[in-house]
Amino acid sequence: EIVLTQSPGTLSLSPGERATLSCRASQSVSSSFLAWYQQKPGQAPRLLISGASSRATGIPDRFSGSGSGTDFTLTISRLEPEDFAVYYCQQYGSSPPMYTFGQGTKLEIK
Amino acid sequence: EVQLVESGGRLVQPGGSLRLSCAASGFTFGNYAMSWVRQAPGRGLEWVSAVSGSGHNTHYADSMKARFTISRENSKNTLYLQINGLRAEDTAVYYCAKGGAEFDHWGQGTLVTVSS
Lengths: 110, 116
Description:
The structure holds 2 protein chains of 2 kinds.
Chain A: E1 4-7, E2 10-13, E3 19-29, E4 34-39, E5 46-50, E6 54-55, E7 63-76, E8 86-94, E9 97-101, E10 105-109
Chain B: E1 3-7, E2 11-12, E3 18-25, E4 34-39, E5 45-51, E6 58-60, E7 68-73, E8 78-83, E9 92-98, E10 105-106, E11 110-114
Parallel strand pairs in B: 2-11
Antiparallel strand pairs in B: 1-3, 3-8, 4-5, 4-9, 5-6, 7-8, 9-10, 9-11
């Protein structure tokens, strides 16, 4: 079973700064099957990135994803007040079908 | 507009059973795999189970295989999750989510609380 480890656990930044969130897999993951989500308190998660680097519909271009193999990154180029939330990475394995989430990174206002 | 609306969550005693429902609209339900994902209070996301668009193929997280049953009724655009032998550690918000490799739409969740 693939384990996803996200770092840091908490990231404290100010609006306008750049955020870099990491997701490391215990074994190689297909880039096609790596996604990122944003979750705000009391809300359901929202898909940001699929296929490691493709923005979902309606997601601003300040969000970008990159990486391959075991190391993936979500970058928010210039933080807006509404970006402070918890972010999760997720991978899909097809044989058998199984989904794994990272433990999350909390992005908080400094 | 895609909408997923969960229902059925409530306070249940340990050992009890529950069936959660997710009513879908805004897309051709039978064309998409669906999943249940849960989130315990203050914790992260945990995938529970998935079902293919036809309903013929089901998959579970290893720890969920014994007590959880996913199903769907495409004629009613509805997804279900049957949970038996409920335990305190099953206390969580249960989300239904649409998609195959990733989940592009989520419901608002339904809260299951297991307590005596």
